[in-house]
């Protein structure tokens, strides 16, 4: 089979397509014929060694969707031909999904309902599971609450806008102008350009004076901002940053409003099958679409990884082997 592999850590050019043996599933694993593999920023961190260095040769790709080709000896509940999707592979403890076939432990994969699309599902894992964990599990977002999603056009952002809308929260999101109509269609009540000078006032105006929940993917830009636009008792969920030194210029804005902060990694999810099933349900009933902005083949993996870090797009990039 063909698989994208890196033989040393480095920039995107270290990714090459190798012809290798198809892997055998371990007792608790599925062998999946990959239909679609999401391209995520975290794939690039495993590639360049900045997250957790991985043993080489290594195939990246944390997200997977496809069809079961073979089941391990102890597997129950899956059989060849089943459509599945999952996440949490390709992180060093297992090889990833940028390949024609990949093995997946059964605790990181669920069945894909008939109403959900395989290509979209390949891009759903990290993005939608993170959005679900942030808004549903950590923030306990409730109907009619005001929720701010920074960067609503991103992989996580566009899933979060739709999950927020699916729980009947009142979603305000920020994005470049070109994505505003699409995000309104996805259920955002208010869409604001993140570059505007009066953004904090505009968020407060849109949310009866302050937001109850914030999903923040750029803590170094927005930690203080989040406190400034928070309602009393607000929950801020932090999932990322560009530099690792976010700080307050006035922590009193947070303290005076009893703001709670929860920083999270999707990889700490106790049972990935729970949010995966939730996300699959939303896709099946039409409450969540993964917007596939661009699809690449295996040979284009370097281009896909450069694009996920440098280009502007709505939704997700996927590799279809
Ligand atoms: N903790 C976790 O478990 C976890 C899980 C998933 C992702 N993450 C992290 O979360 C971040 C986002 O991931 P992603 O996959 O959604 O990335 P993505 O698809 O590249 O999205 C990033 C988004 O940020 C927007 N953006 C750029 N500058 C901005 C600004 N100043 N203010 C607000 N938004 C801005 C971009 O919009 P434009 O294109 O218009 O510039 C883009 O929509 C990454 O750092 C990733 O590593 C963490």
Automatic annotation (TrEMBL):
Q: Name one GO molecular function term.
A: oxidoreductase activity, acting on the CH-OH group of donors, NAD or NADP as acceptor
Q: What organism is listed for this UniProt entry?
A: Natrinema versiforme JCM 10478
The yes or no answer to whether the keyword Aminoacyl-tRNA synthetase is present is no
PANTHER family hit by this protein: QUINONE OXIDOREDUCTASE
Instruction: Write down the InterPro entries for this protein, in alphabetical order.
Output: ADH-like_N, ER, GroES-like_sf, NAD(P)-bd_dom_sf, Zinc-ADH_QOR/CCCR
State which residue ranges cross the membrane.
none
Look up keyword DNA-binding and say if it applies: no
SMART domains to which the protein is assigned, alphabetical: PKS_ER
- What are the boundaries of the signal sequence? none
Its protein name is Alcohol dehydrogenase GroES domain protein
Q: Which part of the chain is the Enoyl reductase (ER) domain?
A: 10-319
The UniProt keywords, alphabetically, are: NADP
Q: Which Pfam families match?
A: ADH_N, ADH_zinc_N_2
- From its record, what is one biological process in GO terms? small molecule metabolic process
